Amino acid sequence: MTSNRSEKIADLLKREVSLIINKDVKDPRFQNLNITTVKVTDDIGIAYIYYTIVGKSIKKNESMIEERLLKKLSGMIRSKLSKSIQIRRIPKIIFKFDESIEYSRNIEELLKDLK
User: Fold this and answer.
1) What is the DSSP string of 79-107?
2) Which domains, and CATH codes, for the chain?
3) pTM of the predicted model as reported, rounded to 2 decimal places
């Protein structure tokens, strides 16, 4: 059961992390990165940030490379978050590739093939 506070912090983190990636990260590989969902544990110790790359079909191997790069950026992102939002403890950030968009595309393709 998620608390109301963790949901509010998840929404705040989604907005702030998106801004940080768009403004402060100069790497062109993250230019089309889109944060889809943020899930925060009830104790606000860990934030799972789900992302996708807009306009690009990503295979499993490519998403692993992106996650390694994002893991390196997570320290800088946490530092920027501590300066921009006022909460007692900034959660540990874990990036995960959001496979739901690829999954829905595959289902749409299968449905087109049936017609």
Assistant:
1) HHHHHHS--SSPPEEEEEE--HHHHHHHH
2) 4-114 (3.30.300.20)
3) 0.81
